[in-house]
Amino acid sequence: MSVSRTKLRNRVSVCTLSLALFLGTAGAIAAEDRKVYVIEAQPTAAALNTFARQSGLQIMFDYAEAARTTAPVLKGSYTRKEALAILLANTRFQIASEDDGVIYLKVSERQRDAVATVVEAEPTEVIVTGTRLRAASASPVKQIGRAEIEGSGYGQTGDLLRAQPEIFAGGPNPGIQAGNSRQGQSNITNASTIDLRGLGPDATLVLLNGKRLPSNGYTQAADVSAIPLLALSRIEILTDGASAVYGADAVAGVVNFKLRKDLEGVEAALRAGGATGGGAGEEAADIAAGRTWTGGYGLIGATYRNQDPILAAQRDFTSGVVPTNSLIREDERKSVFLTGEQAVSPHLTLRTQGLFSKAQSASSQRNNPTAILYTDRTAVRTASLGVGADYQLTTDWALAFDLNYSDSADHRETYSASSTSRNNWSNRSESAEFGATGVLFTLPGGPVKVATGLGYRRDSYQFVGNVRERAKRHIRFAYLEALAPLVTPSARPGLNRLDLNLAIRTEAYSDFGETTTPKVGLRYVPWPDLTLRATWGKSFKAPNFNQTAAAGNVYYYRATSVGGTDANAAALVEYGGNPDLKPEKATSWTAGLDWSERLTGIKLTATYFHIDYTDRVVVPIAVFGAALSNPAYASFVIRNPSAAQQAETLASLYNGGQFYNFTGGSYSEAKTIAILKDRWVNATSQEISGVDIRLSRRFAFSTGHLDATLSATELTIGQQTIPGVAEQTLTGTLFYPASTRLVSALVWQGPRLRLSGTANYISGGTDTGVTPRAHIGSWTTVDMTASWKLTSKGNSELQLAITNLFDRDPPYARGAGATYPGLYFDSTTASPVGRFLAITLRHRF
Predict the structure, then answer these.
(1) I need a labelling partner for 111 at 20 to 30 A (CA). Which of 132, 270, 604, 836 fits?
(2) Could you tell me the CA-to-CA distances from 764 to 204, 590, 718 in Å, in that order?
(3) Quick one: which of 472, 541, 543, 477 has its CA closest to 507?
(4) In sequence order, what are the residues at sequence separation of 6 or more whose Cβ sits closer than 8 angstroms to the Cβ of residue 107?
(5) Residues 796-841: pLDDT tens digits?
(6) CA angle (508, 510, 513) in 5-degree steps
(7) From the centroid of its chain, how far is CA 16?
(8) 633 with 621: CB under 8 angstroms?
(9) Coil, helix or strand at residue 643
């Protein structure tokens, strides 16, 4: 299919400027800036944190190692390399690498003999997501550092994640509209979930400091809105199957939120903003206090946020919607967090982390101006607490023990002038894990590192409303991971390094049986500037409680609402949970490269990914508006059902399921022309493939530096619902991810001024909710931020952020209003907010 001229122009307009910068070879990099540093003598960990703040860089290092020594006084004008050399003079640290404003330190074990050889370890600050070993991973991992978090201009963790091209904005997320007929896409709690590749938020594992976050009771996925941006050191996004390392749910990948360890003193932020088109007024306040000391660190903080709703009357493109209906829910959130670590002996270190959040949101809806007004209010509580201990058994071996508890509870009230309903959902998870890491033996290429362990987790779910639903499962697991250096690290061209990573994990579920998932990774470094990597593995995901234990309902719609043409006819729809679901299984592989060119500063990361997803739990009829007109749904449609078939459907109610009539009239056997089998089902297969590309270049000048980046994701999702039926492509269709996303950015960083501009492109698609099908236009928006340090010390900063600078409306998609007349845009790929301005004031005491 040829690309239209309009689509081509849109893509070119997004990336031309960045590509021009990358392809140009002119512009020599200026000499490194000198800065004035004022750092008192103190523990090396604290000194390095102070250096990071004063230099504007991020430092990755081993805190336990840094706690052993004291750094000298550093006062005067130095380059960053000169300053680091002084601070590290009394340590075993060396600079391992530098990447996008991040310096990685490694530990060198030197023998006392001055002429002895040096045996160097990998960079050792924190184990990177995708492996339990202190080593580089063969899986693709994207990092969003502290500087990028602050400079993004976003005030919420979910907004920052949804701006990444690898992450789909659908699912239970703010702004998802009631007219979205794809099951699992509603959002009564105003939660923010992460949906890598558009496979559903329950196919992405979310971690906080490497530990599972609790699933929200209603959405059955982790709500990241409880995590304040102020608390984060960085975010790691693993875009590869990882069940062999982390267990079930890591099918599309893993997102790991790393809390800060480097805060010295108190940091506070105030934020206010709103949409220029009206609504979405936002007020937020954050505060955190931290300190590092010999043998440990501590961080504690709190955050508050309030957001006003956006009503249909405030947007021209929703003029056909009842004016008082909510497009964005009003929302209030509060959270507190803590993390800490303390070495109680040379061998034993204790650690803890906790997160507690409460939220309330509300919306108002009515189907037409004369219909009953329904007001919905939801209260959400989330709690997570973990404690652990690390014991250094020998020089090579360490033990770890962790206990974690988490729960989430949602309370919803829906009321009108004549009725009130109350529903409660809750999730709870308790786990214990014991692990060991060390060196198993040594090959000619170096030591073979292993990580092994076992554990137990208990998950439970409860719903209380007009019916009561309960479910629980027990999981026992064991894992083993090994890293083998096949080639001795050296400076030999073409054979600098070659590592083999093997992992295997077995999990036994009380309700779905046992599964074993292996993974293999290969990382080849022909020379220091180029890394080639490849992975292959299997993943597993048990259906969530909402898919198996939810009530099985039956709905009654007018035939015209589900793709029919007879205004006098109707259709029955079976909808809800399915207790007979089987586990999902996936086989995935990736191949990619990481390349940097030292002379020009160009960096390139490219990854091809492929996932074969079998027994995928999906709703077979994704779009109600096309149920009777799309041949792909024929296997799940019974046309002209007999009286016995209709009676069987009406009797299929279970777990307290209800019959709901939306035709405006009474049920009529004679007028019923179809039955739609639209409960959760194990579809035969999905095939997901695509490419992630990130290109960057830094231009250094005497007054600062300019960073240019281009990130792109090309995605294809094909689904075959049953054998013998042709595969249908889901990407680029209504309520599914776009085929192409591009994010291009320019960032200027000076001593006190930071300016950034970002262009976001989402490709157009096909409106499958109307007959005949129609084109949905692409969506291109531009964001800008400007930050100014108010003092020469840099401890106070004022930031202006503008999202959707040119106030672009969402592309028109009439099929999106099939069950919500007047709401003619796809809320999973475009937002109704419009231009949004926010001012943030940060101060470090």
Answers:
(1) 132
(2) 25, 27, 17
(3) 477
(4) 62, 65, 92, 93, 94, 120, 121, 124
(5) 999 999 999 999 999 999 999 887 889 999 999 999 999 999 999 9
(6) 50
(7) 28
(8) yes
(9) helix
